[in-house]
Amino acid sequence: MILSIKNKFHLTERRREAIACALFIAPVVVGFLAFTLIPLLVSGVVSFTNYSLAGQPVFVGFDNYIFLFQDKFWWNSVRVTIVYAIIVVPLWLVNSLLLALLMNQNLKGVHVFRTIYYLPAVLAGVAVAVLWRWILNYRFGLMNILLGELGIAGPNWLGQKPWAFYSIILMSQYAIGWYLPIWLGGLQNIPTELYEAAEIDGADGLTKFFRITLPMLSPIILYNLVMNIIWATQLFTEPFILTGGGPQFSTTSYMMYLYNNAFSYMKMGLATAMGWILFVVVLILTLMVFKSSPMWVYYESERRNG
Amino acid sequence: MNNRIAISDSPLSLKKTKRLNQRVTRNIVKVFSYIVLITGSIIFLIPLFWQISTSLKTPEETILYPPVWIPASFQWQNYLELIERFPYHLYSRNSLIISISVILGTVFSNSLAAYGFARLRMPGKDVIFIILLSTLMLPSVVLIIPQFVIFQSLKWTNTYYPLIVPAFFGNAFYLFLMRQFFMGIPRELEDAARIDGAGYFRIYSQIILPLSKPALITVALFTFVATWNDFFGPLIYLSDSAKYTIAVALRYLQGSVRSRPENHLLMAAATLSMLPCILVFFAAQRQFIQGTVITGVKG
Question: Which tens digits make up the pLDDT trace of B7-49?
Fold first, then answer.
C-alpha cells in the first residue's frame, strides 16, 4: 500500500518534470520546425519549380539541375570556389598553426601578439573588405606603394585577371588569428612528460613535432579542417565588395552566383537547386574527412584504454 | 635506444656542452620567433593603421607620393562631414537595435533549452537534442532561399523580423555550448533549493543563470560580433535605405557611383563601423579568447 502510493507520487513528480522540460525546450523545438525543417521541406519542393517570387510557380522536374550542369557560368563558379578552397584551407591551417607554435614557447609578451593577430578576426566583414579595397587600389593603394619602394611595379590587383583572385586569397589570410586560441589551447593540453621522455630518447625538434605535437593536435586539425572546408565554400563578402565577381567572372564564387540567380535574376528555384548541390557536396566532403580520420586522428582516450 | 646509451656513456663534460648547446639553440629559436612574430604583427597592424591614418587626411594627402603615414594635421572634421552627408547615426542605431535584440533572444532561448537538456528528464529528450545538434552540419546555404521565400510570403521583407525573430528560437551552436556549461554546475546547489520548495523556473533563473555568467557573456559577445558584422542577412532583407545596418550602408557607400564618398571619408566610415567591435573586443578580450577555445574544440 505504502509502496504504491510512493510509486504514484514518484510518477507524477516525473511527469511534472517532463512537462517542465518540454516547456523549457519548446522555443528551440519550435524554432527548429519553423526555421529549419519547414524551410528544408519548402526548398526541396522549390528546387523543382521555376519559382521567381512573382507569379505562380510551375513544376519543372529536374530542369533546374539539368540547366546548372549545362551552364558555363555555374561551372565557372564551381571552379573558382574549388580552387579557392584548395589554396586557402591549407594556408589557413598551416599559417595559423605555425603562428601558434611560435607563440607557444614561454615568450614574453605573448598576449600582446595574440591580441594583435586576433583583432582582425573580430573585425571580419564588410569594413575589412572596404579597407582592403583601398589598400589594393591600383594607383594609390598602400600595397603598390610599398611594392614600388622595393622596385616592383605592382599589378592592378582588383582589375586584372589572375590578380583579383590572388587578392581574395591574400585577404582571406587576414583572419587567421581566429584559430590561434584553438591551437594554443591544444598545444597547452599536450602533457610535457611526452616531450621530456622524447628528449631523454634524444629526439630532435622535428621528430618531436611530427611524433608528438601533430598526433596530439590531430583532433583539433580534424575540427578545423571540416570547419574551414565549410567556410571556404561559403565565400561571398570578400569578392562581393572587392571585385564584384570580376574581372570576367574570375572571382564569382559559388555563393555570389547563387546570390545573383536569386536576387538579381529572381530565379529562386534555380538558386535553391544550387544550394542543394552545394549542401550535398559539402556533406560528402565532410563525410570523407571523417571516414579518413581513423587513419590520422589520434584520440587520447585510445591511449589510455590501450 | 642507441641514443640513450650514448648519453649515459658520455663523460660529464660532454653532457655539459650538450646542455649548453641546447640552451644556445633554444635562444636562437626564441630570437628568430620574436623577429617573425614582430614582423607579422606589423603586417597585421599596418592595414588598420593605414585606415585610421587615411581617415584623418585631406583628400590631397590620400594620393600623395611618397605616402603620408601620419597626416600633417588630423582632419577630425572628416568624420563630421561623413555624418553630415550620410545618416551614420541612423545606421548605427539600426545595427544596435538588431544586435541587442538578437543577443537577448539568443541568450534567453538557448539558456532555457540548455537547462532543460542539461538537468530535466523527459522521454525522447536525447533524440531531440541529437536532431537539434545535427542542424549544425546543415550549411545555411540550403536554408537561405526557402527562408527568404517564407519570410516574403509573411510580408516580413524590408523589416527587422527575419533578422531578429529566429534568434528567439534557439541556435544549435550556443545551445550546445550552454548545455555543456550547465552540466558542469554541481547539482547539490539545486537540491538544496528544491528542498526549500523552489520550482524549476526559479532554479533556472536564480541558481543556474547567475552561476553561468561566463558562458552567457561569451555567447553574448560572439552574438554581438556576428550580428554587427552580418552582411548577407541585412543585404537580402532590407531594401529601404533608412533601415540599413552599418554593414549594408558601408557597402552602399562604396558601391554607389554617384554619391560615392572619397577614400578618406570611406576609411572614416570603415573606422566608425569597426569601432564598436574594437571596443567590445578590448573590454572583454579574455572572454573572447576563452570562448574560441571552448567553441572551437567542443563545437
Answer: 445 556 666 777 778 788 888 888 999 999 999 999 999 999 9
Residue type, B69: W
| Residue A28 CB coordination number (10 Å) | 25
Determine how many CB atoms are found less than 10 A away from the CB of residue B270.
Answer: 28
Distances (CA, A) of B260 to A131, B129, B257: 15, 49, 5
CB distance from B42 to chain A under 8 Å? no
Q: What is the pLDDT of residue B127?
A: 92
The answer to whether B239 and B158 are in contact (CB under 8 A) is yes
Q: What does the block give as the cell for A31?
A: 524554432
Residue with cell 614600388: A148
Average pLDDT over residues B195-206: 90
- In chain B, what residues touch A24 (CB-CB under 8 Å)? 112-113, 115-116, 120, 200, 204
Closest by Cβ to B170, choosing from A18, A31, A178? A31
Whether B150 sits inside 8 A of A200 (CB atoms) is no
ipTM of the complex, rounded to two decimals:
0.85
Residue B108: the pLDDT is 95
For residues B262 and B51, the model is more confident at: B51
What is chain B's mean pLDDT, rounded?
86
Contact of B151 with B218, CB cutoff 8 Å = no
CA A102 to chain CA centroid, nearest Å: 24
Whether residue A135 and residue B50 make contact (CB cut-off 8 A), yes or no, is: yes
Residue type for B292, please?
T
A180 Cβ contact list (under 8 Å, min separation 6) = A96, A99, A100, A103, A114, A117, A118
Q: Average pLDDT of each block of 10 consecutive residues along chain A (306 residues)? A: 52 84 94 93 90 84 92 95 95 93 86 90 89 90 90 88 93 89 87 88 86 89 87 91 88 94 91 92 88 82 51
Regarding pTM above 0.80, the answer is yes
Angle at B219 (CA atoms; ends B217, B221), nearest 5 degrees: 65
Question: B128, A29: Cβ pair inside 8 Å?
Answer: yes
DSSP B190: H
DSSP string, B254-296: HH-SSSPPPHHHHHHHHHHHHHHHHHHHHHTHHHHHHHHHHHH
pLDDT score recorded for residue B1: 40
Phi, psi of A75 (to 5 degrees): -60, -40
Helix and strand tally (H, E) in chain B?
Answer: 17, 0
Chain A, window 173-212: residues with a beta carbon less than 8 angstroms from a chain B beta carbon: 174, 177-179, 181-182, 184-186, 200-202
Record: contact B288-A283, CB cut-off 8 A:
no
Residue in the block written with cell 565577381: A245
Q: How far is CA A206 from CA A55, A199, A203, B57, B109, in A?
A: 65, 12, 8, 49, 48
Separation CA B71–CA B54 (nearest Å): 8
Instruction: Inform me whether the pLDDT recorded for B296 exceeds 60.
Output: no
Pick from B236, B11, B273, B279: nearest CA to B146: B236
**Neighbour tally for B8: CB within 10 Å:** 8
Q: Are A141 and A157 in contact (CB under 8 A)?
A: yes
What φ, ψ does residue A176 adopt, rounded to 5°? Answer: -65, -20
Amino acid identity of B219?
V
* Mean predicted confidence (pLDDT) in B41-61: 92
- For the ranges B128-132, B134-138, B222-226, the lowest mean pLDDT is seen at B134-138
**pLDDT value, residue B156:** 94
Q: Which residues of A touch B123 (CB under 8 A)?
A: 18
